[in-house]
Amino acid sequence: MEYGSGHAMRSYQLYTALTHYADVDVVSARNWDVSSDDLKHFDGNFVGHIKIRARPSVIFAEQPLSKKLQQLVNLPDYDYVFVRYYNQAYWLGLFSLGNLILDCDDCMLEVWDNEKHDTRSNFLKRFKSHTMHRLLHKGYLESLTRANALVYSRHSKYSKLLPNAYEIPNKLKPAETENRIATPNDSEKITVLFVGVLNYRPNIDGIDHFLAEIWPHVAKECPQAEFTIVGAHVKKRNSYRWSTNKNVNMVGFVRDIEEAYNESDVCIVPVYRGGGVHIKIMETMKYGKPVLISSESTRGYNNTLIDGQNAMIAESDGEFISKLINLIKNKEIRQQISVNGQKTFREHYSTETKEPRLEGILYPEPRVPPIQNTSHQQSM
Asked: What span, in angstroms and rounded, lies between the C-alpha atoms of 68 and 59?
């Protein structure tokens, strides 16, 4: 997974936190191959890669413990098996283990719940999500209770139903230029930036909706504005379709995400469904850029984001249009949102404020691990 993507940044955050308490070996599992760039952040502790299906079985049939995983590692040697995402735990057959710790980022029940109420989706999509939620609700929760512990990035109504749930909020390392307040762009051209993994359905649908319902009005009012789309794994048909719109710069994957942010003036998150916390919001604040988001994207930020102060929040397409036009035309407002957003990042989302504390999960009684590690634990 690209380190610049939100899911990869949380993976690295949790990996780094685990290394404070344990020897950690890393196995990747997903439906596409792993690259050398993906591995450089794991300090030589990468063991191997297992290719799995993209989604769990719709009937949640019990899966046997993965033979490929057993070939890569000797599971009895590990005190804990820490897994990102339900899908990985499901296809590797890890719910049979008593030492499973599962990070429930993008909880499937929340995704289905959001989708079935999304009026922007057509009837068939909403009906499918409603059916999945109704049929699989019980089985999904039952499988979660078998884990030793569950980790959520924010308060969730579903985590409250489970006695083994813990909250570990997302954090990001400060940028090298983070302390330099963003300077308003005095040139005529204004760059509006979207960053996200471009094979992720909520991102695709969000861009489609933005280009169909919002951007034409903005481009007409602000011909100096350009919409730039950055992210990995874009399909050719989507890249072509998006790039044919007026004043759209379809970039795709970039190696230096900081440069993409530095070259932008306004960042947007027109995403309307999903189940996790949009790390791209705190990333935008980290780099000192003003951010405009849909109200549906505020999950996990309810206590920190204030509309008009450290972010712009749009409750409707009409608000998104008017607020984006205001940000494009008014550099003083861009500066104000930038300064306050960067301050919010420092106070709440920087790893320098407080590292995730995992001792309550890894140890029966919360304690700080000894400095001298005479008998260390292992985690995968």
From this structure: 23
CA dist 260 and 229 (Å) reads 10
| Residue 120 structure tokens | 């922007």
Ramachandran bin of 40, using left for φ above 0, alpha for ψ from -120 to 50, beta for the remaining angles: alpha
Q: What one-character-per-residue DSSP string does 245-282 give?
A: STTEEEEE--S-HHHHHHT-SEEEE-----SS--HHHH
Cβ-Cβ contacts under 8 Å for 263 (sequence gap 6 or more) = 191
Tokens of 195: 């960053």
d(Cα 204, Cα 49) in Å, to the nearest integer? 27
Report the run of H or E that residue 379 belongs to, with start and end: strand 377-379
- The per-residue pLDDT for range 55-71, each reduced to its tens digit, is 665 555 678 899 999 99
pLDDT value, residue 55: 66
Tokens of 72: 């890569």
Nearest alpha-carbon partner for 201 in 158, 233, 240:
233
Four-residue CA torsion sign, 191, 196, 198, 202: negative
What digits encode the pLDDT tens for the residues 291-331? 999 998 898 898 899 999 999 999 999 999 999 999 999 99
CA distance 307 to 337: 9
Q: Determine how β-strand 248-252 pairs with β-strand 225-230.
A: parallel
79: tokens are 């005190």
CA distance 341 to 335: 10
Report the alpha-carbon angle 371-373-375, nearest 5.
150
The two three-digit tokens of residue 294, written as one number: 């849909």
Contacts of residue 129, defined as CB under 8 A and 6 or more positions apart, other chains included, come to 111, 112, 113, 115, 116, 118, 121
CA 16 to chain centre: 17
